[in-house]
């Protein structure tokens, strides 16, 4: 048996968030878009089964995959949408499953902005009319009007209110990975010259107003988390300096948790940490940045991306770089990994390895679709299939998403 020193026990230490919520340990199931809603975008029994499995897996906090706040604007086919109380019973069942084993559970609320596939959404809107630069797959967006921006802030708040009414412990605002809020933050995608753009203060205003509206909607003691990019990893884009500026402003707001990630569809560092020297030196991608964040804010930190070994996770928490460890892809392959990590942090390691198909432009999407295939197996009550080929995953997902987009357009 491995000897348990105070340092190796650190992953099992509870954490009290500023609003009072208590997480039973330091391991977090990070958001993974499930695409398991029904055709009306309501949660399904498959989602209940999947989150029941993760709940039993031992993490202290489960964050759902991104849930859209507006059915006119989807990130992917079969996203869950929460814009009013029409699906409250199904949301309640989902929350109950996720919380069954004592974990807290929060809903990640999102709007894709320009990151919506061509033909998928009724409307493609963004801070400015700047299309995603990865071929013709993405819709050409139009710029939002001032009135529409205010309407979207209200929608984030309403989605949060309904999520909490359904029994979730709070929400995470998705301000990372190049989606709408992240588009407002970036000088490459926000070319506005009104009160929503033009300088860093005005670019961050949308996030701050969403944060305040969401807090007002959920009350003082529910969890309000924000997922933010350390940087977009693009020349001329959102930098670490601007990210620290945003965090200094968020520090004045009642935020419970700040999740650090990075990258966008155009530069997907979230899956490999980009190419920086620090990422190669350390197991997790954004730890050096997290250490800089510590001197900017007292908001508890969650770092997600690249964590694979109990030793690496223990070092990151015991060393003070982060309070919580986010795990995404490893939990698609081993949903009970958190329990194993808590039992033997010194010897446990994720079996997940990056899945590639040898075509650089498609590798990160291959990895994502391979992972999503494993989620769908878990949701169907099956075991993960480590031998599944990433090329097969790409072909199957293209077929599936293409069919779902066509069905949606036909109103089927
Ligand atoms: C299938 C899949 C879906 C994802 N969906 C989301 C999402 O909805 N929201 C989000 O913030 N991140 C999403 N991510 C990114 C993860 O939360 C995480 O940041 C990334 O996978 C790096 O963590 P890991 O190395 O532990 O996998 C997704 C990742 C995968 C593989």
UniProtKB/TrEMBL annotation:
Pfam families: Oxidored_FMN. Coiled coil: none annotated. Residues 14-339 form the NADH:flavin oxidoreductase/NADH oxidase N-terminal domain. Keywords: Flavoprotein, Oxidoreductase. InterPro entries: Aldolase_TIM, NADH_flavin_oxidoreductase, OxRdtase_FMN_N. This is NADH:flavin oxidoreductase/NADH oxidase family protein.
């Amino acid at each position: 048996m491995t000897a348990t020193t105070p340092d190796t026990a650190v992953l099992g230490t509870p954490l009290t968030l500023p609003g009072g919520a208590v997480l039973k340990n330091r391991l977090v199931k990070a958001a993974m878009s499930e695409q398991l809603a029904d055709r009306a975008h309501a949660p399904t029994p498959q989602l209940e089964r999947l989150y029941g499995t993760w709940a039993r897996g031992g993490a202290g906090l489960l964050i759902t995959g991104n849930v859209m706040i507006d059915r006119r604007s989807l990130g992917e086919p079969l996203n869950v949408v929460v814009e009013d109380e029409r699906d409250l019973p199904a949301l309640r069942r989902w929350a109950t499953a996720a919380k069954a084993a004592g974990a807290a559970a929060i809903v990640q609320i999102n709007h894709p902005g320009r990151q919506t596939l061509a033909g998928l959404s009724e409307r493609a809107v963004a801070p400015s009319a700047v299309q995603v630069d990865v071929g013709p797959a993405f819709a050409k967006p139009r710029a939002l009007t001032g009135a529409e921006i205010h309407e979207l802030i209200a929608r984030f708040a309403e989605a949060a209110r309904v999520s909490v009414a359904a029994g979730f412990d709070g929400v995470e605002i998705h301000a990372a990975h190049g989606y709408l809020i992240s588009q407002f933050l970036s000088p490459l995608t926000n070319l506005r010259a009104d009160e929503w753009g033009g300088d860093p203060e005005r670019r961050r205003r949308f996030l701050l107003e969403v944060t305040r509206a969401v807090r007002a909607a959920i009350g003082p003691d529910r969890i309000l988390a924000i997922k933010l990019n350390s940087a977009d990893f693009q020349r001329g884009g959102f930098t670490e300096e601007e990210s620290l500026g945003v965090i200094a402003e968020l520090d004045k707001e009642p935020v419970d948790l700040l999740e650090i990630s990075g990258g966008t569809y155009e530069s997907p560092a979230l899956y490999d940490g980009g190419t920086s020297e620090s990422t190669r030196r350390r197991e997790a991608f954004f730890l050096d940045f997290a250490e800089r964040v510590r001197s900017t804010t007292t908001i508890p930190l969650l770092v997600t991306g690249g964590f694979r070994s109990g030793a690496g996770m223990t070092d990151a928490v015991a060393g003070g770089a982060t309070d919580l460890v986010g795990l995404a892809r490893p939990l698609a392959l081993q949903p009970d990994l958190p329990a194993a990590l808590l039992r033997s942090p010194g010897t446990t390691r994720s079996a997940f390895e990056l899945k590639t198909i040898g075509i650089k432009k498609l590798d990160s999407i291959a990895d994502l679709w391979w992972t999503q295939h494993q989620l769908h197996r878990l949701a169907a009550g099956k075991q993960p299939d480590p031998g599944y080929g990433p090329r097969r995953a790409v072909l199957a997902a293209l077929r599936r998403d293409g069919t779902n987009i066509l069905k949606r357009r036909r109103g089927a």
